[in-house]
Design brief:
Strand content: 15-25%
Helix content: 40-55%
Strand order of the largest sheet: 1-2
Largest sheet: 2 strands, antiparallel
Number of strands: 2
Structural class: alpha+beta
Shape: globular
Order of helices and strands: HHEEHH
Distance between the termini: 19 Å
Length: 66
């Protein structure tokens, strides 16, 4: 499975709410991940550590919290 960052961690790092991260990914306004609708009531979010790091000007290690 590909490495990914949680919505919660992305929200902490960006200063946005978790809802804003989810909506931004669903509407393709945030360039660091994707939202995949798997059923009527479920959406899976994939946030790339490398793309989020680039977006924020951080290292991947800083984004991962390691």
């Amino acid at each position: 499975m590909a490495e990914r960052i949680s919505v919660k961690r992305a929200a902490e790092l960006t200063g946005l709410s978790q809802l804003s991260i989810r909506l931004g990914l669903q509407c393709k306004h945030l360039p660091f991940g994707t939202a995949i609708k798997t059923s009527k009531n479920r959406t899976v979010y994939h946030i790339s550590p490398a793309l989020l790091a680039e977006y924020l000007g951080l290292t991947v290690e800083e984004v991962k919290g390691t």
